[in-house]
Amino acid sequence: MGAQIRQAWERFVSDGELPGQTIRDVVTQSWKRSAGFHVGFNRRLAPMVEEGELHRRRTGNAILISAAAPALGRSRTFLADARSMLILTEASGLIIATEGDPRVVDAGRANHLELGGHWHEQQIGTNAIGTALAEGAAVQIHGSEHYCEDVQRWTCAAVPVKNSANGRILGVVDISGRVESFNPQSMALAVAVGGEIESALDRMLRMEHEVLLRHFLMKRSVWLNEDMLVLDRYGLVVHATKEGGSAGVWKESGMREEVQTLPIPEWQAELRRREPNAKIEFVRQEGGEIGAIVLLGRPQAKTATRSGASSLRERVVLFSDILGKSPAMLAAKERAVRLSEAGLPVLIEGETGTGKELFARAIHAQVRGSQAPFVPVNCGGIARDLIASELFGYNKGSFTGADERGREGRIVAADGGTLCLDEIGEMPLELQSYLLRVLEDGIVYPVGSQEGRQVELSLVSMTNRSLAGEIAAGRFRSDLFYRVAAATITIPPLRDRGDDVILLAGHFAELAARRLSKAMPRFSEEALQAICAYRWPGNVRQLRNIIDAAVALMPGDDIRLENLPAEVREGIPVNVTSAAGALRKAEETAIREAVEACNGNMTEAARRLGIARSTLYVRLAEYGINR
């Protein structure tokens, strides 16, 4: 049979003669596609992407690699005796993981059957990976059935890995070995591993959906009257607030199909292009985006700007998402208001976890309005060889593995809005001159292009390190510093914010209780003493995490000392006065002010306070507040 296939292949590549019934139809159709792609039958190597692009692809498919990790780990031993290797690709056929017999893995490099190799039919003709993608089904390709002659040394069995919710192909599992080691059980193994990965993905996605829904519930009190969508990492609707509202717009506009083909960071530009009034907030977990909350169709009223605020105190209200009444925080808020009114590039300094991005978003809302794009870029979270293309974008064909359509960079995505550069001190020195030119000229040149695009945006930068020290060390350009730091705001650490720690602890406890469907927590005297005495090196972020855990652990309605971690418990001083009384007084004052501001409208007052109306009535009775 092998000789017949070889003879049919020779006739096909020499004179285009279609093989007869001796060749499987799936192979015949693949040969025809390969010829249509103008793949040379003497092509020996699949194309390879550069290391930086491989890193980006692997990062973008981290959930797929994680789901495959157990099978990859087992294959180190169970495939060694079978003289085979297990291959995992992403949806385009690019190899993102390999494991198995080291001799076979090494042999694969001769044809770029290795990390970074691109095995779509369009690249290397008929092969199990590419043909499984084309057919959308499990395929085994053996020896001379491969289109490229040098690849005919391989025998491969591949199965697509699909998203069970919409049937979309997420990647391919392939078992490959030298042709002389052909094993008819390879296909069964590939199918079994593919099923295992799909099951693991389902479990992971269900967990991510729970995180997305919790985030939605937190935002619901802020966007109470808005029609909202919750999207998972694949652009699928997890929840919609109103049937036929945004969900209908999302489906009918074609945005659903478009977004499902794009990485999450590119959703904002696509939404903005199709729906200028759309608003999107990404949901992150462990440093990566897992989905988004989207508002479509109904524009929100813009935040008041200079012309709409009669006093500094009223304008500071624009920063209401930032809790804190300590002198240090009020001073920071007032400074932020004044500087944002001046329209200057702002550098926000502060330790990790102090809330720098909250200030950045508040400045953006005051200067540009909530509907304008706010585009954050973590300069320390992008690989050095990718940050140029992420910031400035690139033209098609700019480098190996580049998107055929090119890609819009983050700076262009921020046009008309705010570019927020987080950890700007981490930006590679060689790119700082390019950023400086963009900021001075307002023109972006994508990688690989001589044609620039005019942009107009506000700039907010953030850092947790001393840029003056970075300049002295030769790691940061002084001219860029003066361009991004026309004005600076220093966010105080939590340990310098006095009673704000009490206010924040109560706020986070209330939010956590709502998420967990528990009663509003109370703090024991000892717990509050410990919270007030602790130095909080991780600042507000650390406080929130600890309060979240404490609420989850509390046996009843009280957060007790034993519900706090050891490092907090050990900081109790003997001279701390009754913090519990201070917390209750702050709560009573907040409730009185809210009820008065809403003219007795309990529904509106509860919404402003971020608590249930039933909880508000309980507190009114406790404090003797007349309704």
TrEMBL record:
Q: Which UniProt keywords apply?
A: ATP-binding, DNA-binding, Nucleotide-binding, Transcription, Transcription regulation, Two-component regulatory system
- Domain Sigma-54 factor interaction residues, every copy: 322-552
Which ranges does the record mark as transmembrane? none
Q: Does the keyword Isomerase apply?
A: no
- Superkingdom of the source species: Bacteria
Q: What is this protein called?
A: Sigma-54-dependent Fis family transcriptional regulator
* UniProt organism field: Rhizobium puerariae
